[in-house]
Amino acid sequence: MVARVLQPTAVDNEVEGFGHNAGLRRHYYSIVFPMNEVWAGYEGQPSDRLQIEVFESWLEGAKP
Amino acid sequence: MSDHNHDHEVSDGSDDAPGYYELLEITVRELLIEKQLITAAEIRRQLDVLDSRTPAMGARIVARAWVDPAFKDRLLADGRKACEEFGVTFYDDTSLIVLENTETEHNLICCTLCSCYPRPVLGLPPDWYKQKPYRARAISEPRKVLAEFGTIVPDDVSVRVGDSTAMMRFMVLPRRPEGTESFREEELAALVTRDTMIGVAHPSLNARNPE
Amino acid sequence: MSNTRSLIERLPNDIGGVPAAKIDTTDRELEAWEKRCHALADVLDFRKLINTEEKRCGVEALGSDLVAKLSYYERWIVAFANILLRKEVLTPTEIALKLQEVQARSQIHPAGTAP
């Protein structure tokens, strides 16, 4: 579930690690996952969640 | 000479000769200064900036959010912009997402890959935040981690862990303690410790910031 | 030999969800050199000599042994030296000579040198 789209577009930090300064710009998405979908055998509540940001190039568009 | 310079020019009190890594730090810094790639003044200035950033700023922002609902809405909508209203300067392109603790949700922040932390509002992170046990376990067993800090989250409250993986930084907006209705903003801020804004503790009337 | 595959796929800092020990919640003040190291990192970034992501990459490149054995700022300063060497901003000889000079100086004045 997308919690929010981060504006403005920003650099790909993975690529930045290799010495480019301000290369390719795309969006980061802040995404929420249920904990029990991330970890097998998660011990906690089913409503517990993990929120991370994912660069656009890692996401696929949802099929309509 | 100000007290500030005194801190920088005298050792931290130990009489031991500097260790290898300190010698390496001095070596790298002096070489870069000699080559005029950086200046000593820049380093001194940055040390002052680091000293100026403490959790007290975050505490003031939390206290304001507790008393001013419109500010709280702005803070939750765009954390960075709301903090900039307080004169906080962000030194890079990161954004700030403020996670609000409620009756039904408890938030915790971490950085599993390194040590990303909302430094502009909280200063430098504690050792445990940067070390393997917290980084490995906060995202996979947050309730156990919270218990190690003495914080128990009941079953009817869900936990959300915010892991800063790139351009975003998180901060927790803790819940205002009961019995503080008559408190002034500064008194409220005194209840808000660094750990409550990381999410490992709740503000309480028994554990205030030192005067 | 599939047990080495995870070492390749998961960098030493990619530790989310791995089993780990109890948390040591004690607080401590940073040592003066550690704070200077942090200031150095910020100035290197501002001066576009080493950006934050390069620093991160440099720390990861130390490998799992050093990452485990060195403390937080020890990893940073070694990473900076490595990156500056690779970029040919500094040479090994320069570092060796200066290190020798700083060490000799520190034995006369153990309080260390600040900017």
What does this structure look like?
The complex is a heterotrimer of chains A (64), B (211) and C (115). With 64 residues, chain A is mainly beta. Chain A is 12% helix and 42% strand. Chain A is built from two helices and three strands, in the order E-H-E-H-E. Chain A has helices at residues 13-16, 35-38, and strands at 2-11, 25-34, 49-55. Chain B folds into two domains: 3-51, no CATH class; 54-198, Alpha-Beta Complex (Nitrile Hydratase, Chain A). Chain B contains twelve helices and four strands, in the order H-H-H-H-H-H-E-E-H-H-H-H-E-E-H-H. In chain B, the strands form two sheets. Chain B has a two-stranded parallel sheet. A two-stranded parallel ribbon of chain B has the order 2-3. The longest helix of chain B has 15 residues, at 20-34. With 115 residues, chain C is mainly α. Chain C has a single domain (28-108), classed as Cyclin A, domain 1, CATH 1.10.472.20. Chain C starts with a helix and ends in a 7-residue tail after the last helix. The chains are: A mainly beta (64), B mainly alpha (211), C mainly alpha (115). Chains in contact: A-B, A-C, B-C. At the B-C interface, helix 1, helix 2, helix 3, helix 8 and helix 9 of B face helix 2, helix 3, helix 5 and helix 6 of C. Strand 3 (49-55) of chain A pairs parallel with strand 3 of chain B.
Short description:
The complex is a heterotrimer of chains A (about 60), B (about 210) and C (about 120). Chain A is mostly beta strands.
